[in-house]
Amino acid sequence: xxxxxxxxxxxxxxxxxxxxxxxxxxxxxxxxxxxxxxxxxxxxxxxxxxxxxxxxxxxxxxxxxxxxxxxxxxxxxxxxxxxxxxxxxxxxxxxxxxxxxxxxxxxxxxxxxxxxxxxxxxxxxxxxxxxxxxxxxxxxxxxxxxxxxxxxxxxxxxxxxxxxxxxxxxxxxxxxxxxxxxxxxxxxxxxxxxxxxxxxxxxxxxxxxxxxxxxxxxxxxxxxxxxxxxxxxxxxxxxxxxxxxxxxxxxxxxxxxxxxxxxxxxxxxxxxxxxxxxx
Length: 279
Fold this sequence. Notes:
Helix content: 25-40%
CATH topology: Rossmann fold
Number of domains: 1
Number of helices: 12
Largest sheet: 8 strands, mixed
CATH architecture: 3-Layer(aba) Sandwich
Structural class: alpha/beta
Order of helices and strands: HHHHEHEHHEHHEHEHHEEE
């Protein structure tokens, strides 16, 4: 168990607003989990009405995470992972995949949902050779994340780290200064580190479905808490980094062993993915 997790967990219930949807709990609902409330389910169903393939997108996003971690722990020889926007634990979390390849892998998880905090013990299960920690913090405050004692005890920032930003950056609006936030995290990592991101987009949506969603948003019938970005906008997060082949692609297209004809259609997986190396 990471230092301080037990103390932080003691007051978690005071921070949970069950009347408002939270992205981590809504994602849990789409994945078929039980750690969600009525507001999360209502929000999830509202999005599913305008984008029926959202559950497919969520699953394919998760499969990409697992492929990327296997690549990093195997071919890229990365042993340290900083996973921000962890979400509620499911099967094959980052530490489980990484440590199945390299048992000495060290993982720090970060999330701002107190319900995720209550599941921290599941995230902190580690091999004897490796180590895991959990930080209760927000992506919008990278300085707090980087200065956290648990991070410093678990990761050596003089050695390469894989920064995992899976389905989290699209919750940053322009006023949050997302490019500056990601850059500050990347700047804190040494040469040889990697950045992994998945990001929602409307580029791949069926035009009719996209127009319908826009009408629902304008009419106030669909509340939006995310900012989809184009491929060019996603690429801007990786300025100065070396993008690993096959580049910025839909989540189903990154080193997927499943034949293309057997994958979901692109309109059903409206999310880009990227793996990049810091030179």
